[in-house]
Amino acid sequence: VVIDRTAPVPLALQVAERARALMQAGTLAAGDRLPSTRALAAELGVARGVVEQAFDQLSAEGWVESRRGAGTFVAKTIMRPLTVRGAPAATRSHSTRVAQRPSIRLDTGTPWTDPRHLSGWRRAWRTVAAERMPMGYPDPAGLLALREAIAAHVAVNRGVVCSADQVMVTSGTTHAFELSLGLHPRAAVAIEDPGYRAAVATARQQGWDVVDVAVDSEGLDVEALADNTRTDIRAVYVTPAHQHPLGTVMSAGRRTALLSEARRRNALVIEDDYDSEFRYDVAPLPALAQFGLGDVTYLGTASKAIAPGLRIGWLVAHEDRITQMAQRRGDRHDSPSWPVQRALLAMFADGQVSRLIRSARRVYAERSVLVRDRLSPYGTIARDVAGMYLSVELPADTARRVIQRAAKSGVEVPSVADYCRTSTRAGLVIGFGGVTSAQLDRALDVIEAALDRTGHDRQ
Ligand SMILES: Cc1ncc(COP(=O)(O)O)c(C=O)c1O
After folding, report:
1. Measuring from atom 5 of ligand 1, which residue has the nearest CA?
2. What is the pLDDT of residues 351-386, one digit of tens each?
3. Under 8 Å CB-to-CB from 349, ≥6 apart: which residues?
4. Is the CB of 10 under 6 A from ligand 1?
5. Are 238 and 269 in contact (CB under 8 A)?
6. N or C: which end of the chain has fewer CB within 10 A?
């Protein structure tokens, strides 16, 4: 292991990175014992704390396991780097080289899940398997015990104090959005621009008109909403805790302004709080739903804390709305799946959800610092640190060229422009949940090189 003291990368990250490379190459194999932190620190001439930090990181990522009194060992099941869908289009002369490289997708929606918590996952499903499936269709509002667990979760994590009858279990955020819109005659819904594409698609598929409202450094531009002359805006969909995809947090002033503007229009505010568990510097601003469920419907999801594949989320709303929605769902047998609900309940009950959140928060905090350090010289990144992606705003042409160049090197970078409808904002969206640290490093190398090649000046 050789470290470079002149490099801007912290020593602990360098040690972790080198060890990871040895494990990836098979030089260190499953079950091999790593040197003690004291011995390795002495050999490298660094403080012991540096090596301890590196080992903690490797352990959090599932590469190594510590056994009390015995030392640190390469994990039995090493996390393989994510192999991702087909290599991007390449010219013939480059095709062999590109095909050999792993392609890396900096997807914004894929979370990192701590492999150390696999046992908790298995335990939850064993609990499900040991129970007898209830007869008939489950309650369309969700299992009562799960609704209680969700009420406790949103109270602790987001200060949204509610009872189980104000909670409904859904198949994720867009399903919850669809259910919310379904209670009203079709009209227009205001959605942040740039904004969550799946929300736009959902509204349109439900026959609602989408009104584009700009976003600035304080979140949705409420003045622009107030100036909009359409009188049929009956809902406003927002991501105040972490604007998707720009990453800004809606300011306190904007929140109050939004609520009064929505009230003036008799419009429901739909608060998508998709990743607020992952605010890792300071506590997030209170959820809008804290102002009252008469005006706000709150949407949460297990997609970030556990896995998008579970397809489960929740909606917190006034109990009258929940009753109406449950009735409509019941009419079409749209009940949440019993095994999935039961598994989620088991994961809440034995602390698995909290464990996953805590581990991922640590990894995201580190990765976001890395991304920020490497890319903030080139463009504008929202000040707030949250979630599993960061957006770097850049001139449109630069962003386009960087994305193209990165794709040629096997790195798929989402574009801010793809989230825009009428907005002309542009830049790169760097999702860092669905990749390994090594892949993220490599992707950042590629992006930096591409930025430098475009001749885009550092700020
Ligand atoms: C803004 C936003 N809301 C919600 C979600 C999660 O949606 P679901 O609960 O349907 O998986 C995502 C996932 O990427 C998202 O980006």
Report:
1. 274
2. 999 999 999 999 999 999 999 999 999 999 988 778
3. 149
4. no
5. yes
6. C
pLDDT at 83 over 50: no
Cβ of 243 closer than 6 Å to ligand 1, yes or no, is no
Q: Tell me if 389 CB under 6 Å of ligand 1.
A: no
Going by pLDDT thresholds of 50, 70 and 90, the confidence category of residue 283 is low
Beta strand 233-238 with 268-272: parallel, antiparallel or unpaired?
Answer: parallel
Percent helix / strand / coil, the chain, rounded to 5: 45, 15, 40
pTM listed for this prediction: 0.79
Report the nearest atom of ligand 1 relative to the CA of 311: 11
What's residue 26's pLDDT?
78
Q: How far apart are the CA of 125 and the centre of ligand 1, in A?
A: 24
Nearest CA to ligand 1 atom 7: 173
Q: Quick one: which H or E segment has residue 256?
A: helix 252-265
> What Cα–Cα distance (Å) separates residue 140 from each residue in 166, 235, 325, 331?
13, 24, 9, 9
Nearest-atom number in ligand 1 for the CA of 313 is: 9
Cα–Cα distance measured from residue 268 to residue 262, given in angstroms and rounded to the nearest whole number: 7
> CB of 72 closer than 6 A to ligand 1?
no
| Cβ(434) – ligand 1 distance below 6 Å | no
CA dist., res. 175 & res. 180, Å (int):
9
Measured distance CA(167)–CA(312) in Å, rounded: 13
**pLDDT value of residue 263:** 96
